């Protein structure tokens, strides 16, 4: 028997099959690329999500004749919205999480309600990232689309609806709309009234790991699956990565290192304190009722993907994986000192604690001797600086001992040693090569009866991971560079404002 976990990410869809003991059986991924037709816009044809979902599932299930699938669940990026008709067909391009077009709508929402009140209700800093502003923008600028839209779906509920189920969504993903009442776990009437959004156009919030139905024969054949496979609600990728990494208590912070890198601390109650508000900590529902997370995050993978794209330009025969392996080997030959190159990875704006949408990717310190391996190391240095800042922020939200990291950004030993040293935290690397998909598969197992609950799922399927300890000498060597890195960000503030006025 096996369980499928699917992750619809920002830049690719991945499907992984696991046995109930956590052993990975097969995996497949399909990349896709959002596009920007205007400044601040970031869109994608939502059919790309559906096609990628079908391809990855069919590829994986072709290898599972001896381990038939009994359950499946979808995890996804948050904030992206997909307007659909009554059949679940998109009626316009999906507005991605990095879409920042709703600045005017967010400004009016701030005037109407105030940032503090919105944070008290939703646990989120007021920002264009979240779906509420995007829906407001569509209602004002594309009224025909708003009127025609039967539902505004996240990626998870889009897939569920296309599979033949209703418009259901995990509560943690609903929270990423800026329309949920965090403490009640229901849609907030105050936020709906302020935004003018009709609640009937939103999905029904459910706890993650809730069975929404079983695959019917026609859909099952399309996916190469047996009829009757249990389909469950998944969740926000950050939340699924926590479960998939085996983190079940507040003593360990979970770090999902993907295109965005998010550090999450589990809590028993939502923290909307002054400190959390002032530092834009995201507090929202976890996978299961009566649990919450405090999330601090930053854009990380954008910078590395940009670099890899440059290096592969005109040399497409070289895979991204080959480049990573080559550069990671070369880093070991460099001196154990800072590069002197500073790469601010804010390609789509900064996140905690500033939430500055005018922030951009910036490189300071280029010289004729800057080789690709230097740039590679400098990007990971910047990620380590950001990581250390996030761990410091979360230390004010609760006591924790160490960090468990998962995702693509966790594969290099070099970067984990650097993160551990600069943050002065012990770092565990998740045993699972894909904690998001494993977390989704575990939710499918809970819904299908393979596991009694989350703790049982972790006990039976998660193994011990390797760890990295802080190095005081490395921390001392980077102390001044880390300080300069943050000073560069602050010094760039007036330039960002001027630049924004020119290019917008």
Could you tell me the mean pLDDT? 92
Describe the strand arrangement of the main beta sheet, using strand numbers.
17-18-16-15-21-22-23
Major β-sheet annotation: 7 strands, mixed
Number of helices: 19
The total count of strands amounts to 23
Helix- and strand-based class?
Answer: alpha+beta
Principal-axes shape call:
globular
Unreliable segments of 5+ consecutive residues: none
Number of domains: 2
CATH superfamily of the largest domain: ATPase, nucleotide binding domain
CATH architecture classification name of the largest domain: 2-Layer Sandwich
**CATH C-level label of the largest domain:** Alpha Beta
Q: In percent, how much strand structure appears in the residues?
A: 15-25%
Write the CATH fold name of the largest domain: Nucleotidyltransferase, domain 5
The end-to-end span amounts to 54 Å
* Residues in helices, as a percent range: 40-55%
Compute the gyration radius: what is it?
A: 22 Å
Walkthrough of the structure:
The protein is an alpha+beta fold and 504 residues long. It has two domains: 2-237, ATPase, nucleotide binding domain (Nucleotidyltransferase, domain 5), CATH 3.30.420; 300-394 and 472-503, ATPase, nucleotide binding domain (Nucleotidyltransferase, domain 5, 2-Layer Sandwich), CATH 3.30.420. The protein has 19 helices and 23 strands.
